[in-house]
Design a protein that fits this description.
The complex is a heterodimer of chains A (about 220) and B (about 260). Chain A is mostly helical. Chain A has one domain: MetI-like fold, CATH 1.10.3720. Chain A is about 80% helix and about 0% strand. Chain A is flat and about 70 Å long. Chain B has about 260 residues and is of the alpha/beta class. Chain B has a domain at about 100-165. Chain B has 9 helices and 12 strands. Chain B has helices at about 45-50, 80-90, 105-115, 120-135, 150-165, 180-195, 210-215, 230-235, 240-255, and strands spanning about 5-15, 20-30, 35-40, 60-65, 70, 70-75, 75-80, 90-95, 170-175, 200-205, 215-220, 225-230. Classes of the chains: A mainly alpha (about 220), B alpha/beta (about 260).
Chain lengths: ~220, ~260
């Protein structure tokens, strides 16, 4: 182990980690939002739109992230979509994650007891209000563990962005290892960063879960 | 006294695919009276009740609330969602499974419709909710979430939630069937008070005692058919149809010691 190399490389590693976090936050956030929209379309829209959305879900779920990213970044310019590495990476993560998030939301919505929706309809509540006041808050509780889980999976998908030269953590550690030939140290620090990152996310997730499920606890 | 609606059900058919759940049902529900729907399970009584606020869409015939057709503008042409919502505002419904919103306290459950549907301010709605919950004997449970209430308490919150909207008609779908026997009484008492205040009530029930003592008329359904409508005395003491007699015999056998 040669720890002295970190004295030189730590600013670069931190920058890489920052980039990883940024890509993850934006990709996950947008992916979740798109997934939610897809799930709502699947629940409320007319049949032809639903089929179209279903085709999108099937195609994205059925193809590897790397292939999607290549299509977007290298194939995109041929159809007039020209994106820099970072935006391409974020758009890529958003698209890749969206169908999984959509499925999580879809099943969570289905887990909301029909009776609670009917009770809202029976007093004359409009469908948008029902979504906002009943479906989302009740559904989110059952969706949360799966949402956190898939968000954690996405942290690790960010490394693929290094292939289209997004300067995230893997990109930086690779540079470090090719410059110093310290492969062990470089990859250990890479693993360490991710492990800490995921640990933080899962802790935040658990805390959030406790907060929004407080009303389910039978005795105070 | 409350303002009360009348309901007129005429020649209603309801199909689930090839299965006919309601067969040419006609029934008059007078304003300010209590009508109980009884019959074996699968007889269509809940379906009929749910057609009255169009939670279940009937296929033929008409259901009029105070003369106004619900669910359709004209036969075969569905009413707009907005108009349906408008009509539902004056029809309260209470469900077998209570269907309280689990993420809201008792008070919030009652206030929700006042704010979101009637456009009341939050403080005003919360004050109103407290009053309504007081009327059903739950003044000390305002801040409780449904998971921390007994079944009987939950059902009373559900009744308060419906009553707070100032409906002119209340539909009860087996309101005591999911309750432990010792909790049935508290819910029935609230319903009796509501009946005494002059509310039009349609009650699907297996509580023959309630039907016999509180109902003004009792309708008996079997296999989607309305077999008879009569006074409680007529149905329970002098049933004119063998099917009613059979039903009551089974009921009595099950409930005797």
């Amino acid at each position: 182990m040669e720890l002295s190399i970190f004295a030189h490389y730590w600013p670069m590693l931190l920058k890489g980690f920052g980039m990883t976090v940024l890509c993850w936050i934006l990709g996950t956030g947008f992916g979740m939002a798109l997934g939610l929209i897809i799930a709502l379309i699947q629940r409320y829209s007319i049949a032809p739109v639903r089929w179209l959305v279903q085709v999108y879900v099937e195609i994205i779920r059925g193809t590897p992230f790397l292939v999607q990213l290549f299509l977007l970044y290298y194939g995109g310019p041929m159809v007039g979509i020209r994106l820099d590495p970072l935006p391409a990476g974020i758009v890529g993560l958003t698209i890749y994650g969206s169908p999984y998030f959509a499925e999580i939301f879809r099943s969570a919505f289905r887990a909301v007891p029909t009776g609670q929706i009917e009770a809202a309809r029976a007093i004359g509540m409009s469908e948008p209000t029902i979504v906002q006041r009943i479906l989302l808050p009740v559904g989110l509780v059952s969706a949360l563990p799966a949402l956190v889980n898939f968000s954690i999976i996405l942290t690790k998908e960010t490394v693929i962005l290094s292939i289209i030269t997004v300067p995230e953590l893997l990109y930086q550690t690779q540079r470090m290892s090719t410059e110093t030939f310290r492969y062990l140290e470089a990859n250990l620090v890479l693993a360490l960063f991710f492990w800490v990152f995921v640990e933080i996310i899962s802790r935040i997730g658990r805390r959030f879960e406790r907060r929004i499920t407080h009303y389910l606890i039978e005795r105070p | 006294m409350v303002q009360a609606s009348s309901v007129e059900v005429r020649n209603v058919d309801k199909f689930y695919g090839p299965f006919q759940a309601l067969k040419n049902v006609s029934l008059s529900i007078p304003a300010g009276k209590v009508t109980c729907l009884i019959g074996p399970s699968g007889s269509g009584k809940s379906t009929l009740l749910r057609c009255m606020n169009f939670l279940e869409e009937y296929d033929r015939g008409e259901i009029r609330i105070d003369g106004k057709l619900i669910g359709y503008d004209a036969p075969g042409r569905k009413m707009s969602a907005r108009n349906l919502r408008q009509m539902r505002r004056s029809i309260g419904m209470v469900f077998q499974q209570f269907n309280l919103w689990p993420h809201m306290t008792a008070q919030e459950n009652v206030a929700e419709g006042l704010v979101r549907v009637r456009g009341m301010s939050k403080p005003e709605a919360m004050a109103r909710a407290a009053t309504e919950l007081g009327k059903v004997g739950l003044a000390d449970k305002l801040g409780n979430y449904p998971s921390r209430l007994s079944g009987g308490q939950q059902q009373r919150v559900a009744i308060a939630r419906a009553v707070a909207m100032e409906p002119k008609l209340m539909l009860f779908d087996e309101p005591t069937s999911a309750l432990d026997p010792e909790l049935v009484g508290e819910v029935l008492n609230v319903m009796k008070a509501l009946a005494a205040a002059g509310m039009t009530m349609v009650v699907v029930t297996h509580e023959m005692g309630f039907a016999a003592h509180v109902a003004d008329q009792v309708a008996f359904l079997e296999k989607g058919e309305l077999v008879a409508v009569d006074s409680p005395a007529g149905i329970f003491h002098a049933p004119k149809d063998e099917r009613i007699w059979n039903f009551l015999r089974t009921y009595n056998e099950r409930n005797s010691f």
